[in-house]
């Protein structure tokens, strides 16, 4: 890569895409070389742009094909779109194995406060008997639970498993639909409410005590430092990276 990183944005006309374009244009070490939207020919646009990094903020049904198209165009890829199932990730890892040096960074959340909250929740989970996650978003969000909440719950479950903890206590015998989604044994509750942007609470409990970790994103600009960090770092991380925490030196 040159000193100035050339960036193409997929989903450029969307709420997040528009904000990403503005952030890239304002960064002195980045250059916005393509704005690509749903009606455009993605392959042709990326071929013409010769981007170093492609940022995908589209929709779950399109993101996998977009990433493979971007890799074929010779770019690294930063992904903020959810919908990445284990099967999709496996296919992506197979593709990257044939492309030495190429990197893809998929982040369930680009908010620095959100990543810190997820990391703290995973570190704290082994000390508590109970753990649940509540995620709250605007009603235009198409998936539930959110990718952030799934990532948080999976990290909590992994930490609890490594510590030898069993399932959280729960005597529920009926009405399981009111208990939220089950993500690796951790209950996740989704709220969709007008006026919200993106928010998450992790509830951790022991007899006589409770730890609440809450993160609030009030505006999409809060995600931009994380997006720009990913754009700058992805070229130095060949293969697949899932989670912004891996480029934040949190260890």
Q: What profile does the largest beta sheet have? A: 6 strands, parallel
Task: Kindly name the structural category.
Answer: alpha/beta
Strand order of the largest sheet: 2-1-3-4-5-11
Helical region count? 7
Q: What is the succession of H and E elements?
A: EHEHEHEHEHEHEEEEHE
Distance between the termini: 27 Å
Binned strand content: 25-35%
User: In one word, what is the shape?
Assistant: elongated
What's the CATH class of the largest domain, please? Answer: Alpha Beta
β-strand number: 11
Radius of gyration: 19 Å
Just name the CATH architecture of the largest domain: 3-Layer(aba) Sandwich
Classify the helix fraction into a percent range: 25-40%
Query: Which residue ranges are poorly predicted, with pLDDT under 50 across at least 5 consecutive positions?
Result: none
Task: Determine the CATH superfamily of the largest domain.
Answer: NAD(P)-binding Rossmann-like Domain
Number of domains: 2
CATH third-level topology of the largest domain = Rossmann fold
Mean pLDDT: 95
Subunit structure: Homotetramer.
GO cellular component, one term: cytosol
Binding site for NAD(+): 11-16, 80-82, 107-110
InterPro entries: DapB_C, DapB_N, DapB_N_CS, DHDPR_bac, NAD(P)-bd_dom_sf
């Amino acid at each position: 890569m040159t000193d100035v990183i050339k960036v193409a944005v997929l989903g450029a006309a969307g709420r997040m895409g528009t904000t990403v374009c503005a952030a890239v244009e304002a960064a002195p070490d980045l250059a916005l070389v393509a704005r690509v939207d749903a009606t455009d020919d993605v392959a042709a646009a990326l071929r013409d742009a010769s981007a170093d990094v492609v940022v995908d903020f589209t929709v779950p049904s399109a993101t996998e094909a977009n990433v493979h198209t971007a890799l074929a165009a010779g770019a690294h890829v930063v992904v903020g779109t959810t919908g990445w199932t284990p099967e999709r990730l496996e296919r992506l890892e197979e593709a990257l194995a044939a492309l030495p040096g190429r990197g893809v960074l998929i982040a369930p959340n680009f908010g620095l406060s959100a990543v810190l909250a997820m990391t703290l929740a995973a570190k704290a989970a082994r000390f508590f008997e109970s753990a649940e996650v509540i995620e709250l978003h605007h009603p235009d969000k198409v998936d539930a639970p959110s990718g952030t909440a799934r990532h948080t719950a999976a990290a909590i479950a992994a930490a609890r498993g490594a510590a030898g903890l069993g399932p959280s206590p729960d005597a529920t015998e009926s009405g399981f639909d009111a208990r939220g989604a089950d993500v690796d044994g951790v209950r996740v509750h989704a709220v969709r409410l007008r006026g919200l942007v993106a928010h998450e609470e992790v509830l951790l409990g022991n007899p006589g005590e409770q730890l609440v970790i809450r993160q609030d994103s009030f505006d999409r600009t809060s995600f931009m430092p994380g997006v720009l960090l990913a754009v700058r770092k992805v070229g130095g991380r060949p293969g697949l990276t899932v989670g912004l925490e891996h480029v934040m030196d949190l260890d």
